[in-house]
Amino acid sequence: MEMATEEKIEAFIWDNKFNTGVDVVDEQHRKLVDLINRLGAINAHLASTEELGAILTELANYTVYHFNTEEDLMKQYAVDAAHQATHIKAHQHFTAQVMVAAKILLGSNDVNNQLVAPLLKYLTNWLVQHILGSDTRMGQEIIALQAGSSHEDAVRIATAFMSQSANVLMEALNEMYGKLGDKTLEVIQKNQELKVEHEALRVLNEELEQRVKLRTIDLEQANRKLLANNDELKQLNEKLASAQTQLLQSEKMASIGQLAAGVAHEINNPVGFVNSNLGTLTKYVGNMFSVITAYEAVEAGSPDKVFPQVAAAKKSVDYPYLVEDIPSLLKESQDGLARVTRIVQDLKDFSHVDETNWQYANLEQGIDSTLNVVANEIKYKAEVVKQYSGLPDVECMPSQLNQVFMNMLINAAQAIDTKGTITIRTGSAGDEVWVEVQDTGKGISPENLRRIFDPFFTTKPIGKGTGLGLSLAYGIVEKHHGRIEVKSEVGKGTTFRVYLPVKQPSA
Which structural domain, as residue segments, surrounds residue 446? Predict the structure, then answer.
């Protein structure tokens, strides 16, 4: 990827003095020179690790490919065995060095000139010496063999040629180090400029931090005052809300009772005449089917099938299916109405709209009515198991106790994450009866168990609970001269048990 500030660095420039005389080898040498020059250009603009990794991978792969080419040529022409061994060893050493250098570079979080420059210097230095030394000697021997010389003569020619190349080697090295020195000076100058800019930024940053610190102190002081005011206001609000809760609850219970009475009355009237009409309709349909059956008997006794229109009409409406399905539909409709009637009755029993004074009531019937009212909250979360003992009638306000049972059942369902069991037990001992609701939910931690009856305390997410349900239940049970006991184990579940006297003490 080219950048506006990118500058091409020639790690070394190809010259005819680097030619070995073997075309395929010289062509691959030029490719290696180009890759090294690209590495130098990448180093100049402080490349990312990904960009450096791509060129290093390409260089390593091409180096292996080039070395394989040279080694195949030496085997093909049976180049001097001693030279082959030394040459191949040099290849292996160079490949290992490049791999180690690449691993170090790509493992660094900071790819900079100090890391890449030594590798670049090593690559150019090694490649120049290798081309002018081992590769040129190999090329001279291969050229002599191609010209028809014997192996002994070819070795002598190649060995003699190497002494002539020493001066060329030194010239190339001097030129290379000169260019590298110039580039080093440029990099140092740029680094100095960057240091000056960095120092200016540091001073500016310190000034900004000081301003932020002073502003933060002011904000912290203002925030402490605001928090103190908020705490005071919160305490006042909690006292006010706690004082209003009992009044609101009594008004809420009365409103629910009136609503339930109105709903029950309005639903009972249409349900009654619909149920009556369905019964009459069932009777009428049976009579109509008996008439049709009589017509079928007449039709069956006619040898000439004198009622073709009737037969066609029966076929078009699938008459046999209608005869089978209509009674089933009527039966299902009557069952549905019966369920509606039962729900309305349970709603009325739950609210006890006609009962405003203390009276004797069956708590197990009240629990059943409450279960029907909250069935939608429970049926997808838990299986309900009833273990009733047959309680005696208890002197109480049934609608208020049903509110207690409803809160305990809903809390039990909400404590179960996926699927569990809610067990309801009843029992009596002496002048007391008890009702127990046990769930297999996530349980309550010991530090929260002491606070569950406090107004507004809740562990549920925002929008899932107000923290008033158990507080109101506690107040209702206390008003009935009873008590609530709780046992819970985190990860296993919770058990609430309500104790109530069978008869209220006299005033």
Answer: 359-501
